[in-house]
Design a protein that fits this description.
Elements lengths: L5 H34 L5 H38 L1 E3 L6 H14 L5 E5 L6 E4 L7 E5 H6 L2 H16 L2 H31 L5 H25 L5 H14 L2 H13 L9 H4 L12 H6 L8 H9 L2
Parallel strand pairs: 2-4
Antiparallel strand pairs: 1-2, 3-4
Length: 309
């Protein structure tokens, strides 16, 4: 793999963050324009354009409000989605020592530390700035890894923070959530319309168009999410090795994680991508297809890479 410096990775992630901030609202506006053209196909183009330009400011306001709320409440949102709680220092002295020693070695502010009450092995980093950066570790990964292995996992998550990977992830999660909300709202509206005694065929058709366009937008957002290159995991592994000088310790940790990464509380795919290994329980056909669009490379490949250091 071609060498990429930390500053280069930070710069790339900052650029990708800006592109995502621009591309997701733009995509939503394009889909809205298509909606007006499909639903009001009998109207002339001038009226259709007027309706679109009247709706566009409201749509942008909706996106801005949604983004602002999610941006400032993402910590609580992620904690709820993963059922994580703050790890008390008295309870987790070993973890705090490992985190603080690594942060001191790089001159970093110590992030908040959370624990997920699950015996499976997994971890993730989150946050958008020094005040919100956090590392979450499952009870299983704390109890089942030795100090060197756990240090490697923590160093991996710290590297995600250093490289600004976590901020890029938060932006992606927020915008994917918008499309999910629109699709769910449209489906519920269609169901209500179908069950209503006063069925309005025009309204029903409009909601079907909304659902189709929202679903198309959600699929497109998955491709936008591919901006979260798989290389970021290799780079985080390499960063962990730079911090600890112990590549085999992280390789051993990943090997143990691969045996039981499933976190029971995690139901959302957008949040699942934050973990060191996708917390997936069943290896079904559909999960294999979704792996084509995964933001994580196969953990076996990461282990092989670490063993070559």
């Amino acid at each position: 793999m071609q060498y990429i410096g930390i500053q280069t990775q930070i710069s790339r992630n900052n650029i990708r963050s800006v592109l995502l901030l621009l591309s997701f609202p733009s995509l939503l506006l394009v889909l809205t324009y298509l909606f007006f053209n499909i639903v009001y196909s009998n109207e002339n183009d001038e009226n259709t354009n007027k309706m679109f330009f009247s709706a566009a400011p409201l749509i942008m306001l909706f996106v801005a409000v949604w983004f602002a709320i999610a941006w400032f409440s993402h910590t609580a949102m992620i904690a709820k989605a993963t059922d994580s709680k703050p790890l008390e220092r008295q309870e987790g002295k070993r973890v705090y020592n490992l985190v603080e020693n690594l942060c001191i070695s790089r001159g970093l502010k110590t992030p908040k530390i959370y624990i997920i009450n699950d015996d499976s092995l997994n971890a993730f980093a989150s946050g958008i700035n020094d005040d919100t950066y956090a590392i979450s570790l499952s009870k299983g990964i704390i109890n089942k890894l030795d100090d060197e292995e756990l240090e490697g996992v923590i160093a991996h998550e710290l590297t995600h923070i250093i490289n600004r990977d976590v901020r890029l992830l938060i932006i992606s999660i927020i915008f994917v959530g918008i499309f999910s909300f629109i699709a769910e709202f449209a489906m519920r509206s269609i169901s209500f319309s179908n069950n209503s005694r006063d069925k309005n065929k025009g309204a029903g058709n409009a909601m079907i168009v909304i659902a189709v366009l929202a679903f198309a937008g959600y699929l497109l957002s998955i491709f936008f999410r591919l901006a979260l290159s798989r290389k970021r995991e290799y780079l985080a592994d390499a960063g962990a090795v730079q911090l600890t000088k112990k590549p085999l310790a992280l390789a051993n940790a990943l090997r143990k994680v691969s045996g039981d990464p499933f976190i029971e509380a995690v139901k959302r795919e957008d949040v699942a991508q934050m973990f060191i290994e996708h917390p997936q329980k069943d290896k079904s056909f559909f999960s294999s297809i979704s792996a084509l669009f995964a933001t994580h490379p196969p953990i076996e490949d990461r282990i092989k890479m670490l063993e070559q250091f």
